[in-house]
Design a protein that fits this description.
The chain is elongated, with a radius of gyration of 24 Å. Helix content is 94%, strand content 0%. The protein has 66 residues and is mostly helical.
């Protein structure tokens, strides 16, 4: 049992992976919390961007058909 624990504690590469995983999950949680706090304003901004992309795509399709 001591050998297993000794090998696990000396595995620096594995610990780095765990730390990166924790860091990524904390950043993701922070982003989710920030976006949920912004709520409706974020939704309206995303809708405006979507509408702009749709209009640009429609304009491109209309000009390519002429």
């Amino acid at each position: 049992m001591k050998q297993i624990l000794k090998r696990f504690s000396s595995n620096v590469k594995g610990m780095s992976s765990v730390e990166y995983g924790l860091l990524i999950s904390l950043v993701a949680i922070g982003i989710i919390i920030a976006l949920s706090q912004l709520g409706a304003s974020t939704s309206s901004i995303i809708q405006l961007a979507t509408d702009a992309f749709d209009k640009a795509a429609a304009d491109t399709n209309a000009s390519s058909q002429q």
